[in-house]
Amino acid sequence: MADPGPASFSTRANALLRKNLTYQKRNLRSNLWIIMIPFMLCLFLVAIQVLFDTQVNNADENRCGCQCTVTSEAGKCEKESCGIEFSSPDQAFFCSIASPPRWPPLLQIPPPESRAVRTSFLSDIGLPDESCRRTGTCPVTILFTGNNRSVGTSLFDNLLTSSVTVNSSDLLQDLANNVLGTAREADFTNYLDPGIASNDPIYNIRSRCISNATLPFSFGQKPLEFQKELRCVQELNIWRNKSIEVNDVIFKGYQKGNPEGKANEIAAAYDLLNTDRNNFNVHIWYNSTYNDGSRNRPGTLVRVSRSVNLVSNAYLQFLQGPGTRMLFEYVKEMPKPETSLRLDIASLIGPLFFSWVILLLFPVILSSLVYEKQERLRIIMKMHGLGDGPYWMISYAYFLAISTFYVIILMVFGSVIGLNFFRLNDYSIQFTFYFLYVNLQISLCFLVSSVFSKVKTSTVSAYIYVFGSGLMGSFLLQFLIQDSSFPRGWIIVLELYPAFSLYRGLYEFSQFAFRGNLRGADGMKWKDFSDSAMDEIFCIIIVEWFVALVAAYYVDKISSSGKDLLFFLKNPFKKSSSMRRPSLQRQGSKVFVEMEKPDVNQEREKVEQLMLEPSTSHAIVCDNLKKVYPGRDGNPPKLAVRGLSLAVPSGECFGMLGPNGAGKTSFINMMTGLLKPTSGTGLVQGLDICSDMDRVYTSMGVCPQHDLLWETLTGREHLLFYGRLKNLKGSVLEQAVEESLKSVNLFHGGVADKLAGKYSGGMKRRLSVAISLIGSPKVVYMDEPSTGLDPASRKNLWTVIKRAKQNTAIILTTHSMEEAEFLCDRLGIFVDGGLQCIGNPKELKGRYGGSYVFTMTTSSEHEGNVEKLIQDVSPNAKKIYHIAGTQKFELPKEEVRISEVFQAVEKAKSNFTVFAWGLADTTLEDVFVKVARTGQAFNVFS
Predict the structure, then answer these.
(1) Cα–Cα dist 292/299, whole Å
(2) Is 525:426 a contact under the CB 8 Å cutoff?
(3) Domain coordinates of the chain in residue numbers?
(4) Which helix (H) or strand (E) element contains residue 883?
(5) Would you say 813 and 656 are in contact if contact means Cβ atoms under 8 Å apart?
(6) Using one digit for the tens of pLDDT, what is the confidence trace for 613-648?
(7) Which end of the chain has the smaller Cβ count within 10 Å, N or C?
(8) Coil vs helix vs strand at 894
(9) DSSP character for 932?
(10) In 10 A of CB 689, how many CB atoms?
(11) Quick one: 580 exposed, middle or buried, by C-beta within 10 A (0-12, 13-18, 19+)?
């Protein structure tokens, strides 16, 4: 098959996208469960809203009252009439009010226990002693200041009246002649004034009072008829020279503005400024501290009109005399139609649930990324040519598409089932917000995935983040947002935590939806964007998205590509200092070693010559490659690879033998980009492994020691994916996949279309070999490829590898001497990080196998006769094995002839019983053991 060349960016991106879509299709059940969670939460919110509507919104006390006006003889109601006249005071609020009631104007005054008295933290300005609170006789204090005290004195002398008359038929006019006050805070509307409708008394504020004088009266008509008690309370006017003094007194009267934390309130204050007979100019302080626990009641302004009237009336009398009065008879609301209670409880609690819904994507994406890291699938894809660019582009776009589809389904489903949270707010604002946040969330997943190496750990941590963030948002962030005294700057700081910025945006949506439903209007529109907190939220999300994405890419480059911490500062046009440098200088300590190993020395000289040539036909060239692991926990540095020089031409299979820990895996990891060499150079197809690894990967195949496969992809799908990475397309790809499956016996019986997770260990191993060879890569690394295979499968696999090496350089590690002898053109035996010998199997056996192995088994009493027999045949023979009558000896070839051994054995049989005997030439295994022992002994000695 012709070389297809390296795959383009789009080809590799297409391969990864197809693999991801196939993988996603196989996880259909998990995807359905993920989608069902927001569905169930939305349905749960709808159920809560329906229950709330039944028990609260549609309850009898929360709608206009009705009574049966016509009853049949059987006692059945035939006609029901509804209206304010049939309603209780609570129900009257919801009735149609064509002509709202007229309420006498009330002045907001502090309750008796909160009225201003003399305290340690407030200078003596004429306030009464605290003992008045025990008797309930504390006056209502009003402060005055201005540029002209004489004018101020005249005004506050005219402020109050001394008459009390409520016997007239026009009750409102009689009450208007008095200054009425209430300690009950105003409501959102004034259709039913709480000061009148409550059981609290109405205070008549006067300059002088007979102690606690009271006057009962009736007000209104059924059902809004109230029996009230008019209680006299004395007013205290105090002049201050400067407005700043007034401000100080008012602030210290606020319970959070004084050390004792108790209310010490002033009813009102007036700054007369430059008021005189020709100019009336006044500033009014009024008490707006009354609230319902979450925000100031806008109804507080209903009380302000009385304060304005008092000082205006006083100024009029100052100009015209006490006979001129400006009465303030009543205040009334605008007419209203019949209404009903429309509290959207689903929108109020929506931020908690919907933050969970959006954040639920975090553990899903994170676990997917960590799974690729845990199973080392990312690195195996990279080794087969998938560059960082296609991986990041497709992975990001893939997760973004899933997340976008997820939030669109959420918005559509929430709107269809009737949640005002989605229906009332502008869909374009919602989608933009969700789209920006899922981009931030994906970037965070890429960044956080570098911290975890296990899927279970990442999943548990992610779900703790999801549910913990939602609860903290609901019980901490929302509380702080609603606390007007909490600094806004700190709110922005908290919103830098990504989950809090999500919660804040959802909170704004919920508030607009709640108010819109209450008023029968729309929710958030683009015109409301800057009036809410959404502008700052959008800015935070966009900036954090950019920062998280850059940080994730930076960390990925360092962790997966082995880049330096400051790699971005290096000149991309400057060639690496490690590229193709001649290895002519060698340390003197190496001379003895090289003289003792002429084959290794010859290979080193060959590499030196190749490094001087501008081009070479050798696919792999390693020049003095060295790897040193730094010392840890007090241990010295570990020299894993000791200056390896090796050249492997195309069409050769080079076998690496060696005991465990010899350095074979470290060498393979350096050549495949998993480890960075401490020193030396490695060239693959003329490309340096230290600076051009991304280009090296496009012509490389790897069969790792442990199978790195997707459990939910079939064998065919694996080969299609890796074939596309090798730039195979169309019918050529299909043919290559079919041939690969047949070559490793995975084609017939439906095995090719069976999930890899259900393969046996041997089947997975065969698939890994097929993956490494598909696309005819120029260089292939195989780490014990036949491990776990039965003899028949092993022989077949060897045939496949032997056929594949025609145009490929293969480096193979194995512990099977039979496999090494069958497959490898040359062998190298590694011991303690160094190459001890190199050559083809016959050369090695000839070089290191200069003896025969003689074995004989007799009874125990004849073991001495066997030793004497061997001494006669070969005086320099060496016993290498002895157990239960069986003995093995090494016989130097130059001392014996095979015919003499046979003659000696036949003679011995006549003297004692010989159960078994044998004479064998040296095997490759014997060579391996001998070289390994010699190399270890030499390294220990040196």
Answers:
(1) 11
(2) yes
(3) 60-95, 102-320, 346-561, 610-839, 850-921
(4) strand 878-883
(5) yes
(6) 877 778 899 999 999 988 877 788 888 898 889 999
(7) C
(8) coil
(9) H
(10) 23
(11) middle
| Residue 182 clears pLDDT 60, i.e. is over it | yes
- Strand segments, DSSP code E, in 11-134 are 66-71, 77-82, 107-108
Tell me which residue of 458, 446, 440 sits closest to 555, measured CA to CA: 446
Structure tokens at 290: 């009354």
Residue 143 · residue 238 · CB < 8 Å: yes
Cα atoms found within 13 Å of the Cα of residue 501, Cβ hemisphere only: 25
Tell me whether residue 324 is exposed, middle or buried, using C-beta atoms within 10 angstroms of its C-beta: 0 to 12, 13 to 18, 19 or more. exposed
783: left (phi over 0), alpha (psi -120 to 50) or beta: beta
Q: Find the mean pLDDT for residues 711-731.
A: 91
Instruction: Select from 284, 285, 447, 244 the least CA-distant residue to 365.
Output: 447
- For strand 618-629 and strand 638-649, is the pairing parallel, antiparallel, or unpaired? antiparallel
Distances (CA, A) of 879 to 854, 870, 871, 891: 9, 10, 11, 9
From residue 747, alpha-carbon distances to 162, 707, 722, 789, 942 in Å are 109, 19, 17, 17, 54
First and final CA of the chain: distance in angstroms? 51
CATH number, span 610-839: 3.40.50.300
Sign of CA pseudo-dihedral 50, 54, 55, 60: positive
Fold classified for 850-921: Alpha-Beta Plaits (3.30.70)
CA atoms within 13 A on the CB side of 87: 21
- Tokens standing for residue 311: 């000082």
Token duo for residue 921: 């030439």
From the number of C-beta atoms within 10 Å of its C-beta (0-12, 13-18, 19+), residue 297 rates as middle
Task: Report the distance separating Cα 683 and Cα 689, nearest Å.
Answer: 6
DSSP-derived 3-state class of residue 223: coil
The whole-angstrom separation of Cα 816 and Cα 803 is 19
Residue 431 CA from chain centroid, whole number: 20
Q: Which tokens sit at 505?
A: 């945006």
The number of angstroms, rounded, from the C-alpha of 636 to the middle of its chain's C-alpha atoms is 39
Closest CA to 657 of 380, 938, 923, 939: 923
Task: Determine phi and psi for 152, rounding to 5 degrees.
Answer: -60, -40
User: Under a CB-based contact definition with an 8 Å cutoff, are residues 678 and 720 in contact?
Assistant: no
> What does each C-alpha distance from 187 to 99, 115, 910 come to in angstroms?
19, 22, 126
Token pair belonging to 580: 């193709």
Is 309 within 8 Å of 178 (Cβ atoms)?
no
Which two three-digit tokens encode residue 177?
């002649």
pLDDT at residue 575, as a whole number:
45
Predicted TM-score (pTM) above 0.90: no
Query: Mean pLDDT: which of 191-200, 554-563, 721-730, 869-878 is highest?
Result: 721-730
- Residue 652 CA to residue 823 CA, distance in Å, equals 10
pLDDT at position 580 is 43
Sheet bearing 826-831, strands edge to edge: 700-703, 779-783, 809-813, 653-657, 826-831, 834-839
Q: Identify the pLDDT of residue 136.
A: 84
Q: What is the enclosing helix (H) or strand (E) of 783? A: strand 779-783
Percent share of the chain, pLDDT over 90: 31
**Which amino acid, 424?**
L
Helices (H), 143-275: 149-157, 171-176, 194-197, 243-253
- If residue 787 lies in a helix (H) or strand (E), which one and from where to where? none
Closest to 922 in 3D by CA, of 871, 880, 866: 880
- CA angle 853–858–862, rounded 5-degree value: 110
Higher per-residue pLDDT: 67 or 777: 777
- Report CA Rg, the chain: 47
Cis upstream peptide for 223 (omega within 30°):
yes
CA 870/CA 901 separation, integer angstroms: 9
pLDDT at 175: 82
3-class secondary-structure state, position 71: strand
Task: Find out whether 719 and 741 touch, Cβ atoms under 8 Å.
Answer: yes
